[in-house]
Amino acid sequence: MDETFTQLPLHLDPSSKAISTAAPTPALKDELAALNALHRSLLALDASNAPHGVPPPPVPVNPKRSAQITKLRESGNAAFRKGAHADAVRMYTFGLEMALGRPGWEPVGLVREEVSGLYANRAQAHMALQGWAEGAVDALASVEMKRGGNGKAWWRRGRCLLEMGRVEEAREWVSQALEVEAGDADLLALMREVEGREGKGGRD
Description:
By secondary structure, the protein is mostly helical. The chain contains eight helices and two strands.
């Protein structure tokens, strides 16, 4: 069956952007009325959401998630102070899961700061349980998230390596730490301890 194309004399109002025609049929009139109504509703929606038709940016940080992460970290700290180190590990782990689960559009710097602190705290809790390997891994993860201004995490991994008898690795690690955290008193003291251990052939 042949198809017939009929060109209609449509007109676009330059100010309102409404479409009209000089020769409307009942069907065409209804179609144009529906199209113009849809256009007006979309304009009204944009105007109500933001000025100049520009949609507002998404909320960069979910305050509820931030509050929950803070609460979990504080709960872990409280458990650690009470000597409930296993409970502290559990609280820090929950906090890490929540921080690492932030949506991709939230600031990377915020996630790194949260995760670095939680890993460093969990490393300390592992160390209190003499979980040297676990503490070393967590301290390394903390440093990878935040190298500068994170002397505690650098120190904790060095201490864990030393406790495991990995003296050469401990020396290399603490040397690297002192390049970043120059003059840190705890790291300097740990380096002296490492050097003393090396003088004894790595034995106590």
